[in-house]
């Protein structure tokens, strides 16, 4: 999966302040209830469109650290996605003045990792640096309604890759009206879901997990050309549902796509990135069906449908381990 060209200002590194890894940012700035789920530790704005962040990667985590196979020896792609999500959310509130009660809708999300990110064993938390260039994609009456964030990630002198997030922002009342119009009813919240999702969960080892609670798919079967399954996430999952949600989030769909790609390609492959598009909300009260097809040696195409309509398409980059 090719890396996009950097959009960061060429002198950003020379003017960068020293960031701290000693404490987390305000959990409200990254849409988390639990401080233990906040990884961003500092934030700085170099200009109106260039920002920096620091994050601490935990040496162990019940979800982000729960891996077998090649993922166990590299920075977790899902953890890097989460750090980028937290940074973009923090910029939206602090830098772009997006209201805290606004509805956030990720429309596109790409992560492209380098192939040489294997790091030596560590006994201390790793310290992640992120640089971001921000484009205000849509401004209405002085209010930012959409933005794009192009980020570069590094651990010390090791460059990890780039992340590109596009998101839309809607005032709370407007978002509620639009959701109710499309659904014809109020969406349920995740805490109303059954503690154990229906269906037969995928064995954790089949998706390079150890803990069954971290499996996001059920009723998987191999079909002509690939794999089919259904999204199935426990309502009590402390990361996916850190606070009540009224839809399956982009992070949940990314994890489901990662697992579907491993079912289609085998757990021995290394994840090299994601290229995703989110067309509409994935509702909680109807099955979200997953289809994964390995289109080439380095990519698995994953499609999510609900009531026959495509809600998201995610291409998962993979590489064979030698």
Detailed description of the structure:
The chain is α+β, with helices and mostly antiparallel strands. It has two domains: 27-175, Thiol Ester Dehydrase, Chain A; 187-320, Roll (Thiol Ester Dehydrase, Chain A), CATH 3.10.129.10. The protein contains three helices and twelve strands, in the order ββαββββαββαββββ. The protein has helices spanning 77-95, 172-183, 250-265; strands at residues 40-45, 50-57, 103-113, 126-140, 143-155, 158-170, 217-223, 226-231, 269-278, 289-296, 299-306, 309-320. It has a twelve-stranded antiparallel sheet with strand order 1-2-4-5-6-3-9-12-11-10-8-7. The longest helix has 19 residues, at 77-95. The protein is globular and about 55 Å long. The two termini are 18 Å apart. Residues 9-13 have low confidence and may be disordered.
Q: Note the total helix count.
A: 3
Average pLDDT: 91
Helix-strand sequence: EEHEEEEHEEHEEEE
Structural class: alpha+beta
Task: Give the total of beta strands.
Answer: 12
Task: Please give the CATH class of the largest domain.
Answer: Alpha Beta
Low-confidence stretches: 9-13
Which strand order does the major sheet show?
1-2-4-5-6-3-9-12-11-10-8-7
Q: Fraction of residues in helices?
A: 10-25%
The rounded Rg comes to 19 Å
Biggest beta-sheet profile? 12 strands, antiparallel
What gross morphology would you assign?
globular
Strand content: 35-45%
**What's the oligomerization state?**
single chain
- The rounded distance between the terminal residues' Cα atoms is 18 Å
CATH homologous superfamily title of the largest domain: Hotdog Thioesterase
């Amino acid at each position: 999966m090719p890396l996009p060209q950097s959009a960061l200002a060429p002198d950003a590194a020379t003017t960068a302040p020293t960031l701290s890894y000693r404490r987390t940012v305000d959990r409200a700035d990254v849409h988390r209830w639990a401080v233990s789920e906040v990884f961003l530790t500092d934030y700085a704005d170099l200009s109106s469109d260039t920002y920096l962040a620091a994050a601490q990667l935990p040496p162990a985590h019940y979800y982000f650290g729960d891996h077998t196979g090649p993922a166990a020896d590299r920075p977790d792609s899902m953890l890097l996605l989460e750090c980028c999500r937290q940074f973009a959310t923090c910029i939206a509130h602090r830098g772009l003045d997006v209201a805290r009660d606004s509805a956030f809708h990720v429309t596109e999300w790409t992560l492209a990792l380098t192939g040489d990110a294997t790091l030596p064993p560590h006994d201390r938390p790793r310290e992640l640096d992120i640089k971001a260039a921000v484009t205000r994609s849509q401004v209405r009456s002085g209010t930012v309604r959409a933005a794009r964030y192009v980020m570069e990630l590094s651990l010390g002198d090791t460059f990890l890759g780039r992340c590109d997030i596009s998101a839309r922002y809607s005032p709370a009342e407007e978002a509620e009206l639009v959701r109710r119009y499309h659904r014809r009813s109020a969406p349920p919240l995740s805490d109303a879901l059954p503690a154990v999702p229906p269906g037969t969960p995928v064995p954790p080892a089949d998706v390079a997990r150890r803990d069954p609670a971290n499996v996001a798919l059920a009723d998987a079967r191999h079909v002509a050309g690939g794999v089919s399954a259904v999204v199935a996430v426990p309502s009590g999952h402390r990361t996916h549902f850190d606070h009540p949600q009224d839809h399956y989030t982009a992070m949940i769909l990314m994890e489901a796509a990662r697992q579907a790609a491993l079912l289609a390609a085998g757990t021995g492959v290394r994840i090299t990135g994601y290229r995703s598009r989110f067309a509409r909300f994935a509702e909680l009260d109807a099955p979200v069906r997953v289809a994964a097809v390995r289109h080439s040696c380095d990519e698995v195409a994953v499609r999510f449908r609900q009531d026959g309509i495509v809600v998201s398409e995610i291409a998962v980059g993979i590489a064979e381990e030698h």
